[in-house]
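Quick one, probably user error.
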């Protein structure tokens, strides 16, 4: 079939069919703590190809091409033309600005001090802007004013990031990365502030301030995930500041913040923050800072499994911090990956006894050791004794801290432990009607080496257990890790 025949077939397709084809290549917002995926790159290439196929496909694909934008360095040559070209597109075409909902800028942005020998890509952005900006035209006085405030009137472009944020009027979430911060002569870590002065200036401008970043709700920050130190060597001693662009927190509707491998900055978040996610390295004292936010409803804490510096704490900061969140917290995902340097800060009982005080909590994702401390105690307390009675969903992972005796018990001697676990679950089913009246979903994530064959999803024992929960209106699901 020749090109003309192909175009004829395409032109005859219903709009719904064209949209269905395009949606298969839709790009998801970038997930914090990951490098750019090959799938996202391929989907973007496919969307561009569809735009070039016909006018009909271009019309259908354009919203998906601009809804989620992921900018990155070129694989070869390390130029930053993607950022510069996208910036020029927004500057010249106001109709595109409201279409950009999610932006991930996977380009190392510059630190506050230009004299620091850093690993940012500022010089590559400047080079690209000098090469690609000649001939830039805008049509309205407000655009001219905005571009001047954002620094686009200058030949040298500081980093290009702030102008993007100022131009993308429909932006709902933004992810940016800064170079990994290294300790310097015992004086702490470099302070990165990504062109916040530009954002602050634009937000306060009487002419256009009310049109900039008004829809932004989510801010994510990460280091360069392709850097060899991002996950491994020396991981406990490097990181980022989650306040690397404090100007973003001046936006009026930011309620969600995610940070990967944080080193500092939690005290700088908006007071109205409702959703916090922390991945990678965590300091034990961080939760004490987080608990000071009075409107927090969702908290995710997922540290890295590698060792972290232990803090000398005078109080049980985890239980104290969680208890402070009792009036507002509705969702808690607290997975430590059994990190011993973190769990050593749980207090003398080695468990999160304050969970029962979270009387507004509806969703809880937790590890079993955080409830009981040690496997030796699972027959001393009922599960309903150690979780809030307000829960609608419970995800319980069978993970014990390194050093727990059950981890060194041979598989053929795990019988008593398995029996205790089954009794614990049966009693929980019996307790739910009176003590967990709102529970509707219970997900048990079991350790494969500790799980006997009769507790597989298809086993009679599991089916009997599942029936117990079904009879009280609770859906029981079993997963293994």
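Nope, works fine. Designed sequence:
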């Amino acid at each position: 079939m020749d090109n003309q025949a192909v175009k004829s077939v395409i032109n005859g397709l219903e709009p719904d069919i064209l949209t269905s084809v395009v949606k298969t290549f839709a790009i998801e917002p970038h997930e914090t703590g990951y490098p750019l995926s090959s799938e996202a790159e391929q989907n973007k290439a496919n969307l561009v190809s569809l735009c070039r196929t016909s006018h009909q496909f271009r019309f259908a694909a354009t919203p998906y091409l601009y809804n989620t934008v992921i900018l990155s360095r070129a694989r070869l040559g390390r130029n930053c033309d993607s950022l510069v070209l996208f910036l020029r597109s927004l500057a010249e075409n106001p109709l595109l600005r409201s279409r950009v909902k999610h932006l991930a800028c996977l380009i190392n942005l510059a630190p506050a001090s230009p004299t620091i020998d850093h690993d940012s890509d500022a010089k590559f952005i400047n080079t690209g802007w000098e090469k690609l900006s000649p001939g830039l035209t805008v049509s309205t006085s407000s655009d001219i004013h905005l571009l001047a405030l954002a620094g686009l009137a200058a030949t040298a472009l500081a980093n290009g990031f702030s102008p993007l944020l100022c131009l993308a009027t429909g932006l709902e979430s933004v992810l940016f990365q800064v170079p990994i911060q290294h300790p310097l002569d015992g004086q702490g870590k470099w302070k990165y502030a990504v062109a916040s002065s530009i954002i602050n200036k634009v937000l306060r401008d009487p002419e256009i301030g009310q049109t900039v970043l008004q829809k932004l709700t989510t801010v994510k920050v990460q280091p360069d995930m392709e850097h060899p130190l991002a996950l491994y060597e020396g991981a406990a001693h490097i990181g980022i500041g989650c306040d690397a662009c404090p100007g973003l927190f001046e936006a009026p509707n930011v309620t969600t913040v995610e940070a990967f491998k944080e080193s500092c900055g939690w005290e700088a978040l908006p007071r109205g923050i409702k959703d916090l996610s922390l991945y990678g390295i965590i300091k034990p004292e961080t939760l004490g800072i987080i608990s000071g936010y009075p409107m927090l409803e969702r908290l995710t804490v997922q540290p890295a499994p590698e060792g972290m510096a232990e803090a000398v704490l005078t109080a049980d900061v985890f239980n104290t911090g969680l208890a402070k969140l009792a009036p507002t917290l509705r969702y808690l995902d607290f997975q430590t990956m059994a990190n011993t340097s973190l769990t050593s800060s749980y207090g003398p009982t080695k468990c999160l006894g304050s969970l029962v005080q979270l009387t507004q909590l509806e969703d809880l994702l937790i590890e079993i050791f955080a409830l009981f401390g040690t496997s030796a105690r699972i027959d001393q307390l009922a599960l309903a004794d150690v979780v809030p009675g307000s829960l609608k969903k419970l995800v319980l992972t069978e993970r014990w801290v390194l050093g727990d005796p059950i981890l060194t018990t041979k598989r053929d001697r795990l019988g008593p432990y398995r029996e205790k676990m089954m009794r614990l679950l049966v009693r929980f089913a019996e307790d739910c009607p009176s003590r967990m009246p709102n529970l509707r979903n219970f997900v048990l994530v079991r350790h494969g080496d500790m799980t006997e064959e009769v507790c597989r999803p298809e086993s009679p024992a599991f089916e009997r257990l599942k029936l117990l929960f079904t009879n009280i209106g609770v859906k029981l699901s079993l997963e293994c890790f």
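Residues 51 and 59 are 8 Å apart (CA to CA).
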